[in-house]
Design goal:
It is a single chain. With 182 residues, the protein is an alpha+beta fold. The strands form two sheets. Strands 1, 2, 5, 6, 7, 8, 9, 10 and 11 form a nine-stranded mixed beta sheet that branches. A two-stranded antiparallel sheet has the order 3-4. The two termini are 18 Å apart. The model has no long low-confidence stretch (mean pLDDT 91).
C-alpha cells in the first residue's frame, strides 16, 4: 500500500484530500504561476487561484506543508484514469499512441512559495509523486517545462528526465516536452 503521507525534514507531503487543502494548493499555484511568472491561462484573479478542469477530481494534487503552513504543490494525472488537458493530449499524441494510456501520467503545476524554496523540497515532492505513479502501474511520467528556464531544465535533467524533441512554441512561450521512465 502506498503511504499517503510522508515527512521530509520539517515538511509533510501528502495528497490534498480536503477542500481546504486543494484550495491551498491552488493558491500556491496562483502565487507562483500568476504573480511570479505572469501566466494567466487558468488564473482566477478574483479567488487568487490557478486551476483547470483536471482539478475537479481527475487528478491527484500533492501538497507540502511546513508545520501546517502550505508551502508547495505538484499534480499528477494518470492517463488510465482520465484524459489529459486538450493541449497536453495534442503535445504528447505520438508518445501516447506509442506507449498506451495506462502506462503514462503527466506531472504538472509544480510550485513552491519563495519562503519555502529549498534544495530538497522539490525533489521530495517529485519522489512522492513518482512512487504513487509507480504503485499505480505508470511507467512514463510526462511533463512540460519552460525551455528558456535554465534552472528548471538543469534540475529535471539531473533528476533523470529526457527531452523528447525540439522545443515547442505555444501561447507566446517555448516549452520542452520531457519524459521520465520510472
Amino acid at each position: 500500500m502506498y503511504p499517503y503521507l510522508i515527512h521530509h525534514r520539517d515538511f509533510s507531503i501528502q495528497f490534498a484530500e480536503t477542500d481546504e487543502q486543494r484550495q491551498s494548493a491552488l493558491r500556491i499555484r496562483f502565487e507562483v504561476m500568476t504573480k511570479e511568472l505572469g501566466r494567466l491561462q487558468y488564473a482566477n484573479l478574483g479567488k487568487e487561484t490557478y486551476s483547470d478542469p483536471l482539478d475537479l477530481g481527475a487528478s491527484h494534487i500533492i501538497l507540502a506543508e511546513q508545520f501546517g503552513v502550505p508551502a508547495g504543490t505538484l499534480r499528477f494525472t494518470l492517463r488510465g484514469e482520465s484524459p489529459f488537458l486538450d493541449e497536453d493530449e495534442r503535445l504528447f499524441k505520438v508518445f501516447l499512441d506509442e506507449h498506451g494510456d495506462s502506462q503514462c501520467a503527466i506531472a504538472d503545476r509544480g510550485a513552491i512559495l519563495k519562503t519555502f524554496r529549498s534544495a530538497s523540497l522539490y525533489p521530495a515532492m517529485w519522489s512522492f509523486g513518482f512512487e504513487f505513479a509507480r504503485s499505480n502501474g505508470v511507467r512514463f511520467v510526462l511533463g512540460v517545462i519552460d525551455a528558456k528556464n535554465a534552472w528548471l531544465n538543469s534540475f529535471h535533467e539531473s533528476q533523470g528526465w529526457t527531452v523528447l524533441n525540439e522545443p515547442v512554441a505555444q501561447d507566446n512561450s517555448t516549452w520542452n516536452l520531457i519524459v521520465k521512465e520510472l
